[in-house]
Protein backbone atom coordinates (compact mmCIF):
# COMPACT_ATOMS: atom_id res chain seq x y z
CA UNK A 1 0.00 0.00 0.00
CA UNK A 2 0.91 3.67 -0.26
CA UNK A 3 2.85 4.48 2.91
CA UNK A 4 1.43 8.01 2.92
CA UNK A 5 -1.94 6.53 3.86
CA UNK A 6 -0.54 3.84 6.14
CA UNK A 7 -1.97 3.66 9.64
CA UNK A 8 -2.56 1.21 12.46
CA UNK A 9 -5.94 -0.34 13.12
CA UNK A 10 -7.25 -0.56 16.68
CA UNK A 11 -7.89 -4.09 17.86
CA UNK A 12 -11.66 -4.34 18.33
CA UNK A 13 -11.49 -8.03 19.14
CA UNK A 14 -13.21 -8.97 15.89
CA UNK A 15 -11.64 -11.58 13.66
CA UNK A 16 -14.59 -12.25 11.36
CA UNK A 17 -12.72 -10.85 8.38
CA UNK A 18 -9.92 -13.39 8.73
CA UNK A 19 -10.47 -16.82 7.23
CA UNK A 20 -9.60 -19.85 9.29
CA UNK A 21 -8.50 -21.82 6.25
CA UNK A 22 -5.06 -20.75 4.93
CA UNK A 23 -5.91 -22.22 1.53
CA UNK A 24 -8.64 -19.59 1.11
CA UNK A 25 -6.12 -16.76 1.40
CA UNK A 26 -5.21 -14.93 -1.79
CA UNK A 27 -1.52 -14.18 -1.21
CA UNK A 28 -1.56 -11.52 -3.92
CA UNK A 29 -3.72 -9.39 -1.63
CA UNK A 30 -1.10 -9.39 1.13
CA UNK A 31 2.38 -7.99 1.55
CA UNK A 32 4.80 -10.05 3.64
CA UNK A 33 6.45 -7.61 6.04
CA UNK A 34 8.46 -10.00 8.23
CA UNK A 35 10.62 -12.23 6.05
CA UNK A 36 12.90 -13.49 8.83
CA UNK A 37 12.49 -15.08 12.24
CA UNK A 38 14.76 -14.65 15.25
CA UNK A 39 16.22 -11.38 16.43
CA UNK A 40 16.70 -9.96 12.95
CA UNK A 41 13.01 -10.42 12.18
CA UNK A 42 12.02 -8.71 15.41
CA UNK A 43 14.34 -5.77 14.77
CA UNK A 44 13.11 -5.35 11.20
CA UNK A 45 9.47 -5.57 12.32
CA UNK A 46 10.04 -2.96 15.02
CA UNK A 47 11.76 -0.64 12.56
CA UNK A 48 8.87 -0.99 10.12
CA UNK A 49 6.42 -0.17 12.90
CA UNK A 50 8.32 2.99 13.84
CA UNK A 51 8.49 4.16 10.23
CA UNK A 52 4.77 3.51 9.74
CA UNK A 53 4.09 5.62 12.83
CA UNK A 54 6.17 8.41 11.29
CA UNK A 55 4.06 8.26 8.14
CA UNK A 56 0.88 8.18 10.21
CA UNK A 57 1.93 11.35 12.08
CA UNK A 58 3.06 13.04 8.88
CA UNK A 59 6.70 13.20 9.96
CA UNK A 60 9.58 12.95 7.51
CA UNK A 61 10.70 9.34 6.90
CA UNK A 62 14.32 8.24 7.35
CA UNK A 63 16.71 9.51 4.70
CA UNK A 64 20.29 10.72 4.36
CA UNK A 65 19.12 14.24 5.19
CA UNK A 66 16.95 13.03 8.07
CA UNK A 67 18.50 9.87 9.53
CA UNK A 68 16.80 7.74 12.18
CA UNK A 69 19.08 6.30 14.88
CA UNK A 70 18.12 2.81 15.98
CA UNK A 71 19.80 1.68 19.21
CA UNK A 72 19.78 -1.96 20.32
CA UNK A 73 19.92 -2.66 24.06
CA UNK A 74 19.18 -6.26 25.07
CA UNK A 75 17.02 -7.16 28.06
CA UNK A 76 19.92 -7.87 30.45
CA UNK A 77 21.67 -4.61 29.55
CA UNK A 78 21.11 -1.04 30.66
CA UNK A 79 22.41 2.40 29.66
CA UNK A 80 22.33 5.78 31.40
CA UNK A 81 21.80 9.41 30.41
CA UNK A 82 25.33 9.69 28.95
CA UNK A 83 24.56 7.12 26.26
CA UNK A 84 23.49 9.38 23.38
CA UNK A 85 25.99 12.08 24.37
CA UNK A 86 28.86 9.68 23.60
CA UNK A 87 27.24 7.89 20.67
CA UNK A 88 25.80 10.68 18.52
CA UNK A 89 29.05 12.60 17.81
CA UNK A 90 30.45 9.56 16.02
CA UNK A 91 27.80 9.93 13.31
CA UNK A 92 28.76 13.52 12.54
CA UNK A 93 31.77 15.38 11.17
CA UNK A 94 32.93 18.92 11.94
CA UNK A 95 35.11 20.62 9.32
CA UNK A 96 37.63 23.41 9.76
CA UNK A 97 34.81 25.98 9.60
CA UNK A 98 33.03 24.27 12.51
CA UNK A 99 30.24 23.15 10.18
CA UNK A 100 28.73 19.89 11.43
CA UNK A 101 27.36 17.41 8.90
CA UNK A 102 26.01 13.87 9.05
CA UNK A 103 28.45 11.22 7.79
CA UNK A 104 26.37 9.24 5.32
CA UNK A 105 28.87 6.39 5.15
CA UNK A 106 28.78 5.64 8.91
CA UNK A 107 26.16 2.92 9.33
CA UNK A 108 26.99 1.76 12.85
CA UNK A 109 28.39 2.93 16.17
CA UNK A 110 29.24 0.13 18.60
CA UNK A 111 29.87 0.63 22.32
CA UNK A 112 31.68 -1.75 24.67
CA UNK A 113 30.01 -4.32 26.91
CA UNK A 114 30.57 -4.53 30.65
CA UNK A 115 29.13 -6.86 33.29
CA UNK A 116 28.24 -6.17 36.90
CA UNK A 117 30.57 -7.76 39.44
CA UNK A 118 32.91 -9.18 36.80
CA UNK A 119 36.66 -8.68 37.26
CA UNK A 120 39.69 -10.58 36.01
CA UNK A 121 39.66 -12.71 39.15
CA UNK A 122 35.94 -13.49 39.06
CA UNK A 123 35.72 -14.09 35.31
CA UNK A 124 37.53 -17.38 34.53
CA UNK A 125 35.52 -17.86 31.31
CA UNK A 126 36.31 -14.36 30.01
CA UNK A 127 32.69 -13.29 29.74
CA UNK A 128 33.88 -9.68 29.75
CA UNK A 129 35.84 -10.33 26.54
CA UNK A 130 38.10 -7.51 27.63
CA UNK A 131 40.76 -8.14 24.99
CA UNK A 132 38.19 -7.50 22.27
CA UNK A 133 36.72 -4.34 23.77
CA UNK A 134 39.97 -2.73 24.98
CA UNK A 135 42.33 -4.07 22.32
CA UNK A 136 41.09 -5.61 19.08
CA UNK A 137 38.12 -3.27 18.72
CA UNK A 138 40.35 -0.23 19.18
CA UNK A 139 42.65 -1.43 16.39
CA UNK A 140 39.74 -2.33 14.13
CA UNK A 141 38.38 1.15 14.63
CA UNK A 142 41.50 2.57 12.96
CA UNK A 143 40.05 1.37 9.64
CA UNK A 144 36.39 1.93 10.63
CA UNK A 145 36.02 -1.83 10.81
CA UNK A 146 34.40 -2.64 14.17
CA UNK A 147 31.58 -5.09 13.50
CA UNK A 148 28.38 -5.08 15.52
CA UNK A 149 28.20 -7.03 18.78
CA UNK A 150 24.41 -6.97 18.78
CA UNK A 151 23.50 -5.12 21.94
CA UNK A 152 25.16 -1.74 22.19
CA UNK A 153 24.98 -1.30 18.43
CA UNK A 154 23.42 1.93 17.15
CA UNK A 155 22.47 2.00 13.47
CA UNK A 156 21.82 5.01 11.26
CA UNK A 157 18.72 4.28 9.17
CA UNK A 158 18.76 6.38 6.00
CA UNK A 159 16.00 4.77 3.96
CA UNK A 160 12.31 3.94 4.34
CA UNK A 161 12.11 1.11 1.81
CA UNK A 162 13.12 -2.55 2.12
CA UNK A 163 13.34 -2.26 5.91
CA UNK A 164 12.14 -5.84 6.28
CA UNK A 165 15.62 -6.85 5.09
CA UNK A 166 17.70 -4.20 6.84
CA UNK A 167 19.09 -6.60 9.43
CA UNK A 168 20.44 -9.73 7.79
CA UNK A 169 18.21 -12.59 8.93
CA UNK A 170 19.64 -15.76 7.40
CA UNK A 171 21.96 -16.61 10.31
CA UNK A 172 21.85 -16.90 14.10
CA UNK A 173 24.02 -13.79 14.48
CA UNK A 174 22.28 -10.88 12.82
CA UNK A 175 24.88 -8.47 14.22
CA UNK A 176 27.94 -9.82 12.39
CA UNK A 177 25.90 -10.64 9.29
CA UNK A 178 24.38 -7.15 9.13
CA UNK A 179 27.83 -5.58 9.60
CA UNK A 180 29.14 -7.70 6.74
CA UNK A 181 26.26 -6.58 4.56
CA UNK A 182 26.93 -2.93 5.45
CA UNK A 183 30.68 -3.16 4.75
CA UNK A 184 30.09 -4.86 1.41
CA UNK A 185 27.74 -2.00 0.49
CA UNK A 186 30.46 0.57 1.20
CA UNK A 187 29.49 1.65 4.73
CA UNK A 188 31.78 2.01 7.76
CA UNK A 189 31.50 1.84 11.54
CA UNK A 190 32.84 3.65 14.61
CA UNK A 191 33.71 2.17 17.99
CA UNK A 192 33.29 3.87 21.38
CA UNK A 193 35.77 2.31 23.82
CA UNK A 194 35.10 1.74 27.54
CA UNK A 195 36.36 4.18 30.15
CA UNK A 196 39.72 3.30 31.70
CA UNK A 197 39.83 2.24 35.36
CA UNK A 198 36.06 2.51 35.77
CA UNK A 199 33.78 -0.09 37.33
CA UNK A 200 31.17 -1.76 35.14
CA UNK A 201 28.32 0.32 36.58
CA UNK A 202 30.21 3.49 35.57
CA UNK A 203 30.44 2.47 31.89
CA UNK A 204 27.99 3.61 29.19
CA UNK A 205 26.32 0.20 29.24
CA UNK A 206 26.38 -2.55 31.85
CA UNK A 207 24.65 -5.91 32.07
CA UNK A 208 23.79 -8.79 34.35
CA UNK A 209 26.23 -11.59 33.42
CA UNK A 210 25.10 -15.00 32.24
CA UNK A 211 25.92 -18.08 34.25
CA UNK A 212 28.75 -20.25 32.94
CA UNK A 213 26.67 -22.90 31.15
CA UNK A 214 24.48 -20.32 29.39
CA UNK A 215 27.53 -18.32 28.36
CA UNK A 216 29.14 -21.39 26.79
CA UNK A 217 25.88 -22.05 24.92
CA UNK A 218 25.99 -18.47 23.65
CA UNK A 219 29.59 -18.94 22.49
CA UNK A 220 28.57 -22.00 20.50
CA UNK A 221 25.69 -20.08 18.94
CA UNK A 222 28.00 -17.22 17.94
CA UNK A 223 30.52 -19.64 16.45
CA UNK A 224 27.79 -21.52 14.59
CA UNK A 225 26.48 -18.23 13.26
CA UNK A 226 29.95 -17.31 12.01
CA UNK A 227 30.06 -20.47 9.89
CA UNK A 228 26.52 -19.76 8.68
CA UNK A 229 27.73 -16.31 7.61
CA UNK A 230 30.58 -18.02 5.78
CA UNK A 231 28.06 -20.15 3.87
CA UNK A 232 25.60 -17.33 3.16
CA UNK A 233 27.90 -14.35 2.63
CA UNK A 234 31.41 -15.71 2.11
CA UNK A 235 31.45 -18.79 -0.10
CA UNK A 236 29.09 -17.33 -2.75
CA UNK A 237 31.04 -14.05 -2.92
CA UNK A 238 34.09 -12.99 -4.90
CA UNK A 239 35.71 -11.11 -2.01
CA UNK A 240 36.07 -14.33 -0.02
CA UNK A 241 37.78 -16.23 -2.83
CA UNK A 242 40.29 -13.40 -3.16
CA UNK A 243 41.02 -13.00 0.56
CA UNK A 244 41.03 -16.65 1.66
CA UNK A 245 43.65 -17.93 -0.84
CA UNK A 246 45.78 -14.89 0.01
CA UNK A 247 45.56 -15.86 3.67
CA UNK A 248 46.60 -19.45 2.94
CA UNK A 249 49.45 -18.22 0.75
CA UNK A 250 50.65 -15.92 3.53
CA UNK A 251 50.62 -18.81 6.01
CA UNK A 252 52.60 -20.92 3.56
CA UNK A 253 55.19 -18.16 3.10
CA UNK A 254 55.75 -18.19 6.87
CA UNK A 255 55.82 -21.94 7.48
CA UNK A 256 57.22 -23.69 4.42
CA UNK A 257 60.82 -22.35 4.54
CA UNK A 258 61.21 -23.97 7.96
CA UNK A 259 61.54 -27.37 6.25
CA UNK A 260 64.59 -26.32 4.23
CA UNK A 261 68.22 -26.79 5.25
CA UNK A 262 68.59 -23.23 6.47
CA UNK A 263 71.29 -24.16 8.94
CA UNK A 264 73.92 -24.53 6.21
CA UNK A 265 73.64 -20.81 5.48
CA UNK A 266 75.88 -20.30 8.51
CA UNK A 267 78.72 -22.03 6.61
CA UNK A 268 78.46 -19.96 3.42
CA UNK A 269 81.54 -18.04 2.34
CA UNK A 270 80.38 -16.80 -1.08
CA UNK A 271 77.09 -16.45 -2.99
CA UNK A 272 77.98 -19.45 -5.16
CA UNK A 273 78.03 -21.65 -2.06
CA UNK A 274 74.30 -21.04 -1.64
CA UNK A 275 73.36 -23.37 -4.50
CA UNK A 276 76.09 -25.88 -3.63
CA UNK A 277 74.85 -26.29 -0.05
CA UNK A 278 71.11 -25.86 -0.48
CA UNK A 279 70.33 -26.89 -4.03
CA UNK A 280 68.12 -25.08 -6.51
CA UNK A 281 64.83 -26.13 -4.91
CA UNK A 282 65.67 -25.02 -1.37
CA UNK A 283 67.11 -21.73 -2.62
CA UNK A 284 63.85 -21.10 -4.46
CA UNK A 285 61.86 -21.95 -1.34
CA UNK A 286 63.85 -19.34 0.59
CA UNK A 287 63.80 -16.63 -2.07
CA UNK A 288 60.11 -16.82 -3.02
CA UNK A 289 58.80 -16.02 0.50
CA UNK A 290 61.36 -13.23 0.82
CA UNK A 291 60.17 -11.71 -2.45
CA UNK A 292 56.53 -12.21 -1.46
CA UNK A 293 56.95 -10.36 1.83
CA UNK A 294 58.91 -7.57 0.15
CA UNK A 295 56.19 -7.07 -2.48
CA UNK A 296 53.47 -7.21 0.18
CA UNK A 297 55.28 -4.59 2.27
CA UNK A 298 55.80 -2.27 -0.71
CA UNK A 299 52.14 -2.55 -1.78
CA UNK A 300 50.86 -1.92 1.74
CA UNK A 301 53.12 1.07 2.43
CA UNK A 302 52.41 2.59 -0.99
CA UNK A 303 48.66 2.18 -0.58
CA UNK A 304 48.73 3.55 2.96
CA UNK A 305 50.65 6.65 1.85
CA UNK A 306 48.82 7.32 -1.41
CA UNK A 307 45.28 6.24 -0.55
CA UNK A 308 44.48 5.66 3.14
CA UNK A 309 40.81 5.13 2.28
CA UNK A 310 41.74 2.24 0.02
CA UNK A 311 43.91 0.75 2.76
CA UNK A 312 41.05 0.97 5.25
CA UNK A 313 38.69 -0.59 2.72
CA UNK A 314 41.07 -3.53 2.19
CA UNK A 315 41.61 -3.99 5.93
CA UNK A 316 37.85 -4.23 6.48
CA UNK A 317 37.80 -7.23 4.17
CA UNK A 318 40.46 -8.90 6.32
CA UNK A 319 38.24 -8.30 9.36
CA UNK A 320 35.31 -9.90 7.54
CA UNK A 321 37.50 -12.86 6.62
CA UNK A 322 38.43 -13.38 10.26
CA UNK A 323 34.82 -13.04 11.44
CA UNK A 324 33.71 -15.73 8.99
CA UNK A 325 36.53 -18.25 9.46
CA UNK A 326 37.78 -17.99 13.07
CA UNK A 327 35.99 -21.21 14.21
CA UNK A 328 38.08 -23.13 11.66
CA UNK A 329 41.24 -22.02 13.47
CA UNK A 330 40.38 -24.35 16.36
CA UNK A 331 42.19 -27.10 14.45
CA UNK A 332 45.45 -25.30 15.23
CA UNK A 333 44.60 -25.38 18.94
CA UNK A 334 44.18 -29.16 18.76
CA UNK A 335 47.62 -29.33 17.14
CA UNK A 336 49.24 -27.39 20.00
CA UNK A 337 47.56 -29.65 22.57
CA UNK A 338 48.89 -32.77 20.84
CA UNK A 339 52.46 -31.51 20.45
CA UNK A 340 53.52 -31.72 24.16
CA UNK A 341 52.09 -35.24 24.46
CA UNK A 342 53.78 -36.32 21.23
CA UNK A 343 57.18 -35.03 22.32
CA UNK A 344 56.95 -36.51 25.84
CA UNK A 345 55.68 -39.93 24.75
CA UNK A 346 57.88 -40.29 21.66
CA UNK A 347 60.96 -38.74 23.23
CA UNK A 348 61.69 -36.83 20.02
CA UNK A 349 60.55 -33.80 18.09
CA UNK A 350 57.87 -34.46 15.44
CA UNK A 351 59.50 -32.17 12.86
CA UNK A 352 63.07 -31.82 11.66
CA UNK A 353 63.53 -28.09 12.17
CA UNK A 354 66.97 -26.59 12.30
CA UNK A 355 67.22 -25.57 15.98
CA UNK A 356 69.05 -22.28 15.43
CA UNK A 357 66.66 -21.01 12.79
CA UNK A 358 63.62 -22.40 14.59
CA UNK A 359 64.55 -20.46 17.73
CA UNK A 360 65.56 -17.32 15.81
CA UNK A 361 62.40 -17.45 13.72
CA UNK A 362 60.25 -17.88 16.81
CA UNK A 363 61.96 -14.93 18.48
CA UNK A 364 61.37 -12.76 15.41
CA UNK A 365 57.67 -13.66 15.41
CA UNK A 366 57.49 -12.97 19.15
CA UNK A 367 59.18 -9.61 18.62
CA UNK A 368 56.58 -8.69 16.01
CA UNK A 369 53.84 -9.86 18.37
CA UNK A 370 55.25 -7.69 21.18
CA UNK A 371 55.35 -4.68 18.87
CA UNK A 372 51.71 -5.26 17.90
CA UNK A 373 50.65 -5.59 21.54
CA UNK A 374 52.54 -2.43 22.51
CA UNK A 375 50.84 -0.60 19.66
CA UNK A 376 47.46 -1.88 20.83
CA UNK A 377 48.16 -0.73 24.39
CA UNK A 378 49.24 2.68 23.15
CA UNK A 379 46.12 3.09 21.01
CA UNK A 380 43.94 1.95 23.92
CA UNK A 381 45.40 4.64 26.17
CA UNK A 382 45.02 7.22 23.42
CA UNK A 383 41.26 6.64 23.16
CA UNK A 384 40.81 6.67 26.93
CA UNK A 385 40.71 2.98 27.79
CA UNK A 386 43.29 0.47 29.03
CA UNK A 387 44.35 -2.93 27.67
CA UNK A 388 45.54 -5.12 30.54
CA UNK A 389 48.04 -7.95 30.10
CA UNK A 390 45.66 -10.25 31.96
CA UNK A 391 42.99 -9.56 29.33
CA UNK A 392 45.31 -10.98 26.67
CA UNK A 393 45.95 -14.05 28.82
CA UNK A 394 42.22 -14.65 29.35
CA UNK A 395 41.67 -14.49 25.59
CA UNK A 396 44.46 -17.01 24.94
CA UNK A 397 43.05 -19.21 27.70
CA UNK A 398 39.53 -19.25 26.27
CA UNK A 399 40.89 -19.93 22.80
CA UNK A 400 42.01 -23.32 24.13
CA UNK A 401 38.98 -23.90 26.37
CA UNK A 402 36.42 -23.45 23.60
CA UNK A 403 37.99 -25.88 21.11
CA UNK A 404 35.14 -28.44 21.33
CA UNK A 405 32.56 -25.67 21.04
CA UNK A 406 34.17 -24.36 17.86
CA UNK A 407 34.52 -27.84 16.35
CA UNK A 408 30.84 -28.54 17.05
CA UNK A 409 29.95 -25.12 15.66
CA UNK A 410 31.84 -25.83 12.43
CA UNK A 411 29.85 -29.02 11.86
CA UNK A 412 26.51 -27.48 12.81
CA UNK A 413 27.28 -24.30 10.91
CA UNK A 414 28.03 -26.07 7.64
CA UNK A 415 24.98 -28.32 8.03
CA UNK A 416 22.59 -25.45 8.69
CA UNK A 417 24.38 -23.23 6.18
CA UNK A 418 23.87 -25.85 3.48
CA UNK A 419 20.21 -26.09 4.49
CA UNK A 420 19.91 -22.31 4.13
CA UNK A 421 21.70 -21.92 0.81
CA UNK A 422 20.20 -24.92 -0.97
CA UNK A 423 17.11 -25.79 1.06
CA UNK A 424 16.04 -22.21 1.88
CA UNK A 425 15.61 -23.23 5.53
CA UNK A 426 15.50 -20.38 8.04
CA UNK A 427 18.49 -20.31 10.40
CA UNK A 428 17.69 -17.15 12.33
CA UNK A 429 15.82 -18.71 15.25
CA UNK A 430 17.67 -19.37 18.51
CA UNK A 431 16.95 -19.60 22.23
CA UNK A 432 18.80 -17.89 25.07
CA UNK A 433 18.87 -20.87 27.40
CA UNK A 434 20.03 -24.02 25.65
CA UNK A 435 20.22 -27.64 26.76
CA UNK A 436 23.68 -27.27 28.39
CA UNK A 437 25.33 -29.51 25.79
CA UNK A 438 28.18 -27.04 25.31
CA UNK A 439 29.31 -27.19 28.93
CA UNK A 440 29.36 -31.01 28.84
CA UNK A 441 31.67 -31.02 25.83
CA UNK A 442 33.90 -28.40 27.45
CA UNK A 443 34.09 -30.50 30.61
CA UNK A 444 35.08 -33.58 28.61
CA UNK A 445 37.67 -31.61 26.67
CA UNK A 446 39.28 -29.94 29.67
CA UNK A 447 39.40 -33.11 31.77
CA UNK A 448 40.89 -35.03 28.83
CA UNK A 449 43.54 -32.40 28.19
CA UNK A 450 44.51 -32.17 31.86
CA UNK A 451 44.77 -35.98 32.08
CA UNK A 452 46.82 -36.08 28.88
CA UNK A 453 49.23 -33.46 30.21
CA UNK A 454 49.70 -35.39 33.48
CA UNK A 455 50.38 -38.62 31.57
CA UNK A 456 52.82 -36.76 29.30
CA UNK A 457 54.79 -35.41 32.26
CA UNK A 458 54.96 -38.85 33.91
CA UNK A 459 56.08 -40.55 30.68
CA UNK A 460 58.67 -37.82 30.08
CA UNK A 461 60.13 -38.38 33.55
CA UNK A 462 60.37 -42.12 32.85
CA UNK A 463 62.15 -41.37 29.55
CA UNK A 464 64.61 -39.09 31.34
CA UNK A 465 65.48 -41.63 34.06
CA UNK A 466 65.89 -44.44 31.52
CA UNK A 467 67.96 -42.39 29.05
CA UNK A 468 70.15 -40.18 31.19
CA UNK A 469 73.05 -40.57 28.76
CA UNK A 470 71.07 -39.54 25.65
CA UNK A 471 71.15 -35.72 25.34
CA UNK A 472 68.64 -35.73 22.48
CA UNK A 473 65.94 -37.48 24.53
CA UNK A 474 66.73 -35.31 27.56
CA UNK A 475 66.28 -32.09 25.60
CA UNK A 476 63.09 -33.33 23.93
CA UNK A 477 61.49 -34.54 27.16
CA UNK A 478 62.40 -31.42 29.11
CA UNK A 479 60.98 -29.25 26.35
CA UNK A 480 57.83 -31.40 26.15
CA UNK A 481 57.40 -31.27 29.93
CA UNK A 482 57.65 -27.49 29.88
CA UNK A 483 54.92 -27.29 27.23
CA UNK A 484 52.74 -29.79 29.13
CA UNK A 485 53.09 -27.84 32.38
CA UNK A 486 52.11 -24.61 30.61
CA UNK A 487 49.05 -26.29 29.07
CA UNK A 488 48.05 -27.76 32.45
CA UNK A 489 48.46 -24.41 34.20
CA UNK A 490 46.46 -22.60 31.53
CA UNK A 491 43.57 -25.10 31.53
CA UNK A 492 43.27 -25.77 35.27
CA UNK A 493 41.38 -22.63 36.34
CA UNK A 494 38.70 -22.82 33.59
CA UNK A 495 38.33 -26.54 34.28
CA UNK A 496 37.66 -25.86 37.95
CA UNK A 497 35.14 -23.17 36.96
CA UNK A 498 33.11 -25.40 34.61
CA UNK A 499 33.26 -28.35 37.01
CA UNK A 500 32.15 -26.32 40.04
CA UNK A 501 28.89 -27.73 41.33
CA UNK A 502 28.88 -30.31 38.55
CA UNK A 503 30.15 -33.80 38.01
CA UNK A 504 31.39 -35.29 34.78
CA UNK A 505 28.86 -37.99 33.94
CA UNK A 506 30.00 -40.71 31.57
CA UNK A 507 27.88 -43.68 30.60
CA UNK A 508 29.31 -47.19 30.29
CA UNK A 509 29.20 -47.10 26.49
CA UNK A 510 31.16 -43.82 26.40
CA UNK A 511 33.76 -45.27 28.76
CA UNK A 512 34.13 -48.44 26.66
CA UNK A 513 34.65 -46.42 23.49
CA UNK A 514 37.27 -44.22 25.19
CA UNK A 515 39.17 -47.27 26.47
CA UNK A 516 39.12 -48.94 23.04
CA UNK A 517 40.42 -45.76 21.37
CA UNK A 518 43.22 -45.47 23.94
CA UNK A 519 44.22 -49.12 23.47
CA UNK A 520 44.09 -48.74 19.70
CA UNK A 521 46.36 -45.70 19.73
CA UNK A 522 48.79 -47.47 22.05
CA UNK A 523 48.92 -50.51 19.75
CA UNK A 524 49.53 -48.33 16.69
CA UNK A 525 52.31 -46.38 18.41
CA UNK A 526 54.00 -49.51 19.73
CA UNK A 527 53.74 -51.54 16.51
CA UNK A 528 54.31 -48.78 13.96
CA UNK A 529 56.35 -46.34 16.03
CA UNK A 530 59.70 -47.02 14.40
CA UNK A 531 58.29 -46.95 10.87
CA UNK A 532 56.50 -43.66 11.56
CA UNK A 533 59.61 -42.19 13.17
CA UNK A 534 57.90 -41.79 16.54
CA UNK A 535 60.14 -43.84 18.85
CA UNK A 536 63.55 -43.02 17.47
CA UNK A 537 65.83 -40.02 17.69
CA UNK A 538 66.29 -39.49 13.95
Approximately how much helix is present in the residues? 55-70%
Number of strands: 8
Task: Enumerate how many helices there are, as a single number.
Answer: 16
The stretches of 5 or more residues where confidence is low (pLDDT under 50) are: 1-9
The radius of gyration computed from the alpha-carbon positions, rounded to a whole number of angstroms, is 28 Å
> What is the general shape?
globular
Give the CA-CA distance, first to last residue. 78 Å
Average per-residue pLDDT, rounded, comes to 83
- The computed structural class is alpha+beta
Across the major sheet, the strand order is 1-6-5-7
Largest sheet: 4 strands, mixed
Region (Disordered): 1-21
Biased composition (Basic and acidic residues): 1-10
Keywords: Glycosyltransferase, Membrane, Transferase, Transmembrane, Transmembrane helix
GO cellular component, one term: membrane
Description of the molecule:
It is globular, with a radius of gyration of 28 Å. The longest helix is centred in the C-terminal third of the chain and has 30 residues, at 437-466. Strands 1-6-5-7 form a 4-stranded mixed sheet. Strands 2-8 form a two-stranded antiparallel sheet. A two-stranded antiparallel ribbon has the order 3-4. α10 (330-346) packs antiparallel against α13 and α10 (330-346) crosses α15 (471-499). The protein has a domain at 62-433. The protein has 538 residues and is α+β, with helices and mostly antiparallel strands. Mean pLDDT is 83; it is low at 1-9. It contains 16 helices and 8 strands. A hairpin with a 5-residue loop joins β3 and β4. It starts with 37 loop residues before the first helix and ends in a 6-residue tail after the last helix. GO terms for molecular function: glycosyltransferase activity. The chain crosses the membrane at residues 239-259, 290-307, 328-349, 438-466, 472-492, 513-529. It is a multi-pass membrane protein. Residues 1-21 are annotated as: Disordered. InterPro entries: Glycosyltr_2/OpgH_subfam, Nucleotide-diphossugar_trans.
Amino acid sequence: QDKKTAHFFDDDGATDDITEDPEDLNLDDYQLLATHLGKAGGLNFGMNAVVMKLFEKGDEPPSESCPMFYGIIDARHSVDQRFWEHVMPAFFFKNERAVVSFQKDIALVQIAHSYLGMTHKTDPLDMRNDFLFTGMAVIRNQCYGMTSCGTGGIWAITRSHDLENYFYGRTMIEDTASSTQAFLNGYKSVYVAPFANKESHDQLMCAVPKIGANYLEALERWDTGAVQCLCAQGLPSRWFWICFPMQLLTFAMIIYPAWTKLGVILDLTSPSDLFDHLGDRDVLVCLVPAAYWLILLIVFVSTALCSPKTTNWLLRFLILLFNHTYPLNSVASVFWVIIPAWICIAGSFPFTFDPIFAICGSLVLRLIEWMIVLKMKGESERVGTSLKEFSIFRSQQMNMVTVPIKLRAVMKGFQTGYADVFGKKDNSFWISFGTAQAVIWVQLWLCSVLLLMVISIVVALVHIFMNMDDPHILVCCLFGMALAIIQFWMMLEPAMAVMKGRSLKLSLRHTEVAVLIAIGLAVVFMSQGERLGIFNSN
